[in-house]
């Protein structure tokens, strides 16, 4: 599977000088987060200190990981760059498209059939461009990355929000959109606002029923779903050091649920043990040689209030198991208070399904601790009262726990092993239920529990807990059960109690696997043909966008003047459209269908100036395109907030929209528009928004002298023959102006490669 030890050694070689330069630039001791970030500046050694939460900084990540749903557009775009190989080591993981229905083998074989064209495309494009390909069934992206690619002090981006999982091994790992992944694979720097820092000091030691999951469930309760926004969470203290690497990964994984940019732990004995256990002794040796750079400076941890923007302290000796939910992961209940909460809130007390595993919690330690409870249940004459499923995070873990007999134990308890894939965690779950709308309760060891996330039923009350608690609850079949205090009645009518779970951090006989599911790329991919069926409805090769014509843009029709909130979901809706995310033309049929038209307060109804009739936004835009007429979209405040979904920028570009003029942009969307060669401009005076009339013809003037910081002018030709004009602002720097002129950032890279 070829983790790249030479690349890692190169990263480590530069650590001393870069950390020293960062200390000089900032004039203070450094947190681990700062060390890693400053060691990955794309400019090289730090020449200045960056203001946290203020400055935008260019970084050079070491790796890229992509899951199969988001990889499609990322790689279709990457193909536009004309590079023979990816610029940094990259991998693709087939995990999101497998539906859980019957059991691992049947579900995997159905998925291979249903998603064949997507898998064939991803396999061939990976083969061609030097990307490691993890086949369906190999495992879930974050677990596979943790086992194979994460390394202390590294920096990676991944096209999935739980990419921070790799922070368990001391890596700054950040979830991004496909456009960012494409840029880094194409060799461009990656921009991030220098994050704020939250320090979490862990004292004491976990014991009994409490596990690493409870740390993050507690933190989520303290910080809430927004508390980590724009920040990196750094864990430290004796309690942090004592956690297993996989336990740390669970904590970092769920940092996504508090909105954190990422989370990270320092390098220590447990990290070293995990690296050696997963056959990466070379990395452990290399990391040991620069150990002092792979933790924050001692002064920082001695006086955290002085160096972090916020500090939280948790005493693990006192930490209770937690159950969070329903419907939000920050509603945190200590086990001792949960039964009362269930009754007071009238949540369905009968537990219908307990689900363990996922990318969050399927380590050897998690499985063995849960299996110890399953074993007790069998020995004590108990059968699981709720349905119980196990989703292994990787084939490595699945094979190893099967070899060691744990899957048998679950089987005896009535558990069903699902494929090594996302499955029920992302709604890919054909749940067996007599009424799919009934109020009901489930509990998972996953990370997210928003309404409909798991089974599409808004009345499913989903709770999140550790795998141990999920297993105990599944045995009891009752949400009001407290395994620490309560007895259960066994098949003989006896009162029995579950003992504390016990497990092993790593397998005594070592990890084993027959076929991990990895496919190495061709050494020379130049002759590999990327497989895309021209008749496919799910995949479509991209054509480069046209360059700017070299003149002012005149005579634009107004496509829509959007009123109020217009998020990336209004611009490019998710849900059923997601299956088209590898097909730009088909997914463009959702363009702006959620936006409210200012002139009739209706979604997806705009005036077609060619016919005078109202019709859907995409169809109207296609009519203009067919007549070679450019259009403009007008928007309100914070246009494009939400996700980093690049489709929201690509669709208007593809359908012939020339400019987006708004009161203000969400920054990521603004950058995505610029990357696609689109004109993204803002009203200098936001009152000018009112001047735009439905049947205006609109010019954008000043483009022949387009320059950073220099305003452009918008001229409105109203239907009554009058004209008015006003200034508009932009934030293009010199490089981004070149993107605009070339028709998109990738067109420039392609030219450089030619
Ligand atoms: Fe997959 Fe759920 Fe993790 S969707 S990547 S198992 S958060």
TrEMBL record:
Cofactor: [4Fe-4S] cluster
Catalytic activity: citrate = D-threo-isocitrate
Domain Aconitase/3-isopropylmalate dehydratase large subunit alpha/beta/alpha: 34-477
Occurrences of domain Aconitase A/isopropylmalate dehydratase small subunit swivel (ranges): 558-685
Domain of life, per lineage: Bacteria
Keywords, sorted A to Z: Iron, Iron-sulfur, Lyase, Metal-binding, Transit peptide, Tricarboxylic acid cycle
UniProt keyword annotation of Iron present: yes
Enzyme Commission code(s) on record: 4.2.1.3
InterPro entries: Acnase/IPM_dHydase_lsu_aba_1/3, Acoase/IPM_deHydtase_lsu_aba, Aconitase/3IPM_dehydase_swvl, Aconitase/IPM_isomerase, Aconitase_4Fe-4S_BS, Aconitase_4Fe-4S_dom, Aconitase_dom2, Aconitase_mito-like
Pathway annotation: Carbohydrate metabolism; tricarboxylic acid cycle; isocitrate from oxaloacetate: step 2/2
Family under the similarity heading: Belongs to the aconitase/IPM isomerase family.
Protein name, per record: Aconitate hydratase A
Biological source species: Mucilaginibacter panaciglaebae
């Amino acid at each position: 599977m070829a983790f790249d030890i030479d690349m890692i050694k190169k990263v480590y070689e530069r650590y001393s000088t870069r950390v020293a330069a960062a200390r000089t630039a900032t004039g203070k001791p450094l947190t681990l987060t700062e060390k890693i970030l400053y060691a990955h500046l794309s400019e090289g050694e730090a020449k200045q200190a960056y203001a946290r939460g203020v400055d935008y900084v260019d970084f050079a990540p070491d790796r890229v990981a992509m899951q199969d749903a988001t990889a499609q557009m990322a790689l279709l775009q990457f193909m536009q760059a004309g590079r023979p190989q990816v610029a940094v080591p990259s991998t693709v993981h087939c995990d999101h498209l497998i539906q859980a229905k019957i059991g691992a083998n049947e579900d995997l074989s159905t998925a291979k059939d249903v998603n064949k064209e997507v898998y064939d495309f991803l396999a061939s494009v990976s083969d061609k461009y030097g990307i490691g390909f993890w086949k369906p069934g190999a495992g879930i992206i974050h677990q596979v990355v943790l086992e194979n690619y994460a390394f202390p002090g590294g920096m990676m981006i991944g096209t999935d929000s739980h990419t921070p999982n790799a922070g368990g091994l001391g890596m700054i790992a950040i979830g991004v959109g496909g456009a960012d992944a494409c840029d880094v694979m194409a060799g461009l720097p990656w921009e991030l606002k220098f994050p704020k820092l939250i320090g979490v000091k862990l004292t004491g030691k976990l014991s009994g029923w409490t596990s690493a999951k409870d740390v993050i469930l507690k933190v989520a309760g303290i910080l809430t779903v927004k508390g980590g926004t724009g920040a990196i969470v750094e864990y430290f203290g004796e309690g942090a050091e004592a956690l297993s690497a996989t336990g740390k990964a669970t904590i970092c994984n769920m940092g996504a649920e508090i909105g954190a940019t990422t989370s990270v732990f320092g390098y220590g004995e447990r990290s070293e043990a995990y690296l050696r256990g997963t056959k990466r002794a070379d990395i452990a040796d290399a990391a040991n040689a620069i150990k002092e750079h792979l933790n924050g400076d001692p002064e920082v941890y001695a006086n955290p209030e002085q160096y972090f923007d916020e500090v939280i302290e948790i005493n693990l000796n006192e930490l209770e198991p937690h159950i969070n939910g329903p419907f939000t992961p920050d509603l945190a209940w200590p086990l001792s208070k949960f039964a009362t909460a269930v009754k007071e809130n009238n949540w369905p007390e009968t537990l219908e399904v307990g689900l363990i595993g996922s990318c969050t919690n399927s380590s050897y330690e998690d499985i063995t601790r849960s299996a110890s409870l399953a074993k007790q249940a069998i020995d004590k004459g108990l059968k699981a009262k709720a349905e119980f499923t196990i989703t292994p995070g990787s084939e490595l873990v699945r094979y190893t726990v099967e070899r060691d007999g744990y899957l048998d134990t679950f089987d005896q308890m009535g558990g069903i092993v699902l494929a090594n894939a996302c499955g029920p965690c992302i709604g890919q779950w054909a749940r067996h239920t007599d009424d799919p709308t009934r109020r009901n309760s489930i509990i998972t060891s996953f990370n997210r529990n928003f309404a409909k996330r798991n089974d599409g039923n808004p009345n499913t009350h989903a709770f999140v807990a550790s795998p141990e608690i999920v297993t105990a609850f599944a045995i009891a079949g009752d949400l009001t059960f407290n395994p620490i205090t309560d007895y259960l009645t066994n098949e003989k009518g006896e009162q029995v109690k579950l003992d504390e779970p016990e497990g092993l951090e790593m397998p005594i006989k070592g990890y084993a696997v027959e076929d991990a599911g990895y496919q190495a790329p061709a050494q020379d991919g130049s002759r590999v043909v990327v497989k895309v069926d021209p008749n496919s409805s799910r995949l479509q090769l991209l054509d480069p966008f046209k360059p700017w014509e070299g003149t002012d843009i005149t005579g634009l029709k107004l496509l829509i003047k959007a009123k109020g909130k217009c998020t990336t979901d209004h611009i490019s809706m998710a849900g059923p459209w997601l299956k088209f995310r590898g097909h730009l033309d088909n997914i463009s049929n959702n363009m702006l269908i959620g936006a409210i038209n200012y002139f009739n307060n209706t979604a997806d109804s705009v005036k077609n100036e060619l016919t005078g009739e109202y019709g859907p936004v995409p169809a109207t835009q296609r009519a203009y395109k067919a007549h070679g007429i450019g259009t403009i979209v007008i928007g309100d405040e914070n246009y494009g907030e939400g996700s980093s979904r690049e489709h929201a920028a690509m669709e208007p570009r593809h359908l012939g929209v020339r400019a987006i003029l708004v009161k203000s942009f969400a920054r990521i969307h603004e950058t995505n528009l610029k990357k696609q060669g689109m004109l993204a401009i803002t009203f200098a005076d936001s009152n000018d928004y009112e001047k735009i009339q439905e049947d205006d013809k609109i010019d954008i003037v000043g483009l022949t002298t387009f320059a950073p910081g220099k305003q452009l002018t918008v001229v409105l030709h109203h239907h009554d023959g009058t004209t008015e004009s006003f200034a508009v602002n932009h934030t293009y720097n010199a490089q981004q102006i070149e993107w605009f002129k070339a028709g998109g950032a990738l067109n420039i890279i392609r030219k450089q490669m030619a």
